[in-house]
Structures are given as C-alpha cells and as structure tokens.
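Q: What does the assembly look like in three dimensions?
Context provided by user:
Components: two
Sequences:
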Amino acid sequence: MATPTDTQEQSSDGPLQRWTQSAIQDPEKVYRALFYAAMVFFLVTTLFPFYWLIVLAVTPEGNLLSGSFLPTVNLFGVSGTFPLPVPKGFNPGAFVTVFEQVPFHLYMLNSFALAVTTTVIVLFVASLAGYVFGRLRFPGRALLMLGILAISYFPPAAFVIPLFQAFAGNAPITVPFTSIPLFTPPRMLNTPGSMVLPFSALFMPLSIFILTTFYGQIPDGLEDAARVEGTTRLGALFRVIMPLSAPGVATAAVLTFIAVYNEYFFSSIMATSPEAAKWSPIVGGILSYQTQYTTQFNLMAAASIVGVLPVVILVIVAQERIVSGLTSGALKE
Amino acid sequence: MARVRLEHVTKRYDDQGDVVTAVDDMNLDIDHGEFICFVGPSGCGKSTTMETIAGLTIPTEGEIYIGDREVTNLPPKDRGIAMVFQNIALFPHMDVYDNISFGLRLRDYPQDEIDRRVERAADIVQLEGMLNRMPEEMSGGQRQRVAIARAIVREPDVFLMDEPLANLDAKLKVHMRTELQRLHKELDTTIIYVTHDQEEAMTLSDRIAVLDSGQLQQIDPPLTCYNEPDNLFVAGFIGSPSMNFVEGTVTETSLETPNFSLEFNPSSIEGIGVGDSVTLGIRPEDIYPGELKSEVPDPSGMITATTDILEPMGDEIFAYLLLGDGETSMSQELATNDQLLMSIDPDSDLEEDDEIGVVIDRRNVHLFDSATGDAIVHDLIPYEAEGTASSSEVESDD
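A: Here is the predicted structure of the complete assembly.
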C-alpha cells in the first residue's frame, strides 16, 4: 500500500528509477521490454534491406549517383538529416524496364523450374531414406546416418571441380589414381541436369533428417493397418505416413525450394555464361544489368524485388506449417 | 473355407546378440468360422503369433496356411485377412467413409459397390449418419466400431483382432463384447482374437489357446480349460481369482501338505506313485465352510484355518485363509502353502481373524506334477466308502 510519503519519495526519483522500481515489483515488464527490443532489432535487420531495395528501384537512374539518399529536412527552423533513406524522384517504370532490357522472366522461370524439380526429387528420395531411417531397424543404421551428416558438412565448393569435369563430358571418368577409363558422361553443362543433380545431393541431408524425425513418429499401428488393408510398404509411406507428416514434408519442401531458388554458386559455374537459354538462374539475370562500364543499380534492385516475390508468397502461404514443422520436429525425439 | 493352420511356426529375434524366441514351435489348426482367443500374459508371444498370421512379421521357421494356400511369405494385403488393432489405428487424416472404404478403393472396386458395402458395414456396427465425421470427433467406442467396420467391409476370410477392447472403459468393454459375439454370429467368419484378459477369452471364444513364453500350453473350449487345465500355468491363468496351489507329497493313503492332508488312493490314479511331489490345485469355489460339509459330495476332512482378509464382491465374498499357526500373516512373504483363497456366500457372518474349519470338494481338485507342471488328475476318487471317508479326520499340521 502506497502511503503519501512513499509516493513523494518515488516521484522525487527520475523516470528511469521509477521504471526500475516497478520492474522489480513486476519482472514480466522486463521480459516484455526485452521482447519488444528483440522484435524491433529483427524487424529492422530483415526489413531495412528490403526497404532500401525499394528506395533504389524507384529512384530514376540519373539521380542514383548524385546527392544523398538522406535528405536534409527543415522543421520549424531546425535543420537536420532525415534518418531514413528516401527515393530521389519516383520512377516505377524500372519494374517494367527490367523485363525489357533482359528477359528476366526467363531467368525467374529457370530458377523456378530448377527449384521445383529439385524439391520433387529431394522429397521423393528423402522420403524413402526417411522411411528407412525412421521406421526400420537394421545394423549400421547409425553409421549410415552419421555418413550422411558428415557429407552434409562438406563445403559445396569441394565438389565443383570434379563435377564440372564430369558434366563437361570431354574425357572419360577414370578409376581414382589410375588412368583406367570407366565411362564417358554425356555433356550436361548449360542443361538443368548439371544443376538439379548437385542441388539434390547437397540439399538432401537436411530433408532426410527432417523426414526421418517425422516418419519415425507415426505409430507403427497405422502402417500395419494400411498394409493389412491392402498397400505395400511403399504404398503405406505415400498414402498414410507422408500425409500425416504434412508439416514435416512442407518444411523440407519449402527449405529446399528456397535454397535452390536462391542458389547461385553452382548454377553460375554450370551455366557457362549468364544467359537465360543456358539455364542461368535469377542471380545471373540480376548481374546482367551490370556491364563493363555501367551498373544499373535501380534495375538490379527492381529485379531483386520481383525475384523475391514468389518466395515471399510461398512463405506466407506455408508459414504456419513450416513453424509447426520445425518446432514439433524439434520437440520430440 | 478359411481354415487357418500354423505348422511349427517359430519366431526368433536377435536382441543385441541375444536370441529371443518369441514364438516357439507353434502348431495350431483353426476351423472355418471358429472364434479363437489367444490368451496369455504380456510377452507370451500371442501378438507375435497373430502378426505372423497377418503377415506383418515373417516367421523364422514354419509354415502358415489360410484356406488351402500357403501364405508364410505373402505380404499382408494378399492374405485375405482384416485386422482390428489395439490402438484402433484409424487413419487420422481421413473421415469415417474414407477409413472404411480405404481397402476397397485400393482394390479398385466400382464406386457403387464401395458405397453399398460401406453402408452395410456401417449398418452392422451402427454407425449410420457418422460417415462424414473425422476420427478425432468420435468417442473411443465409436472409433472402435469404425475399425471393425473397416475390417468387415472387405469381407475377409479371417478376422484378426489384437486386443481391440483393451483401451475401452469397463462398461463399454462389456457392451462391445456382446456386439462382437453378435457380429461373429452374423458374419460366420473365422475370428482370431488376442487378449490378456482371461475373462474376455472365456466369454467370447469357441476355443481358447493359452500361450506362455512362446509356447502353446493348451487349446480347448473355455470350460475345458477351466475344469481340466493341462498344466499349472493354464490352471493359474484361467479363472479369476486364480486357483490355490499347495505343494505336497504323496503317501500310500493320502496327500500330505505342510498344513493338512487329503486322503485319496494313489494306486487308483495313473501316473502317480508314493513319494512323488505334487501340487494340489483347488479353485476358491471348491472350498466350503465346515458347516456345509454335509452338502459337499466328497468332502475332505476338516481343515482348521484363520480368516485373514475378507473381500466382499457383492455376489460373493473372497476370504483369505491362513493355515497353520496363523502367525505367518506377519511375515513379509506369505508362503502360498500357508494360504488359501475361499469364495463364500455373501450373507455369511464370517469375520476377519475368525478361526474356522473348512472342507475341500475332493471331486474338484487337481493334481499337478510339481517338477513338470503337467496335470495328473482332475478329481480325487475317495479312498474308502462314503461313510468312512466322512468320518476320517484330517489333522491340521502346526
């Protein structure tokens, strides 16, 4: 109970001290404050680059390099620098120009096709692996799992040179350390095959781990019931186990899709030049706005925004499932 | 005709280097239309045996026949079976209609045939009007009925039921039990039913297969298992509360146990000799208070005992009797030899710690070989003529 003297004492302190006092009484307040601080931090770090892209995209090309994006504002006689960058002019035409200068939609289509193909392959193969690792007991299971984990830690760059040689199809593959030829691979550079294959292999381990956890949690009785009702083991996997693991499957699918959609390293090497016809992805397209002498930052920014839209839509649609997938997978086992 | 035969079926597991035999040389011959219960304690191999019939487990050795076909290595879907699981195992992502029709749709039945069959199955298990519900919206009993409907809709040759009532509450269990019996009457299909509850086995089945440690102990109609158990295990497992067992030695005129003796003529019984150690088995309802002696056809001599604990059940009272000096109740482990469980009339005025005399109906006692556990005889013929038998005193051993 606050007596008059208490109130007087408290009011004589500064506002910070008063806040500290009440925070000691009610620690919830501190947690809430920390939560908001963290939220603001994450929002700024994730949303600011996006905002910066928009500012760049709508700024007319001629104004890009002259003057500051931080305008000086004069407010009631006090002049100062506005803390946020604002566009210098307004030219939404950049969003049209990106498609006129470069067939950017084709680059997007490339990335989209590569991502979808890889996701389908990864989901299918990782489902088989997840079923085996999650539901069957056999000697060497832990060792195999460890092997997959170890390979997933290899840097992708380690595979680039041998894969490039193989996909170039110039010389036969030989037995290691000898010159005994095994076979000559077909030339796959500049085709989706040279990208989908390494992507699938690289992003497979993560999906295998996610799906193993999920498939392992489906009760044996359901699989037995499906098999007695008339499916094979594979049929039970695709008709019962997979639909019941939908959050896990969605998580694996979205993570794989986004990773491939954003991939540049492998595709920039496997597509020998950044042309849409050679299956160069979005990043290849964005870089085409840069020539030897000019860099059209506004077009690059506009292309980046257009390119990111499909992923934004995908995440908004699937986010509930992804979140429940990531957490429920983490809670059990 | 779906006769089910198991020939020398054995299942061994390798448990980190140890070989565990879950089913040991099982031979069974189940007739068409029979209702068979596999009963036994947990880990006795009853579920594994059923899984080998279902095809969910492939036996290490032996053959399984359903009808005229050998199915030992066939996948479950090709065996003409349907199964109801202990955890019900409805597909949570499908509604009742999809659950019931799952097997039919997999087999590409025409749509009108599927509709007709689902409707009939739903009718049999009284699920009309619930076909659009999801499993999570249903009660335990309703889910169990959906599981049964899913099994009957395919009109299988053999029904396998793995403790289908285990997860239901007591009242629903009794209700579903009668429904299962009605269903069996209606469908005339072979049903193999696994349970650990001997009461369920007794009430449901045509024959009970009692299993223990992977071996078949006895397969007989329920009352035969109850009245003429083949061995100590069956005797102890079938019947609730279970049979009293007292160790004893055969003399020329009687069976001597630590606390009493029971007169009989060993020479009149095959497979028993003087000096043999045997185990006497007496069901609680075959022990009578002394004052009813005249009503018992072949009573033993009076045995003195002290009542220890009374458990009134309503229609009867279970009385735990202490034989001998009555002091043993204080000891931690009560030797079974010193204790008898008796079932008495509910309006008896017996009280705890009373000293009473009891008699045993000698026509309904069982003798087992103590070493092997095998049954020797299921009734003791009186040693002498009726008159002398009743006057012979049986002393209680202090």
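Follow-up: The CA atoms of residues 122 and 129 of chain B lie 9 Å apart.
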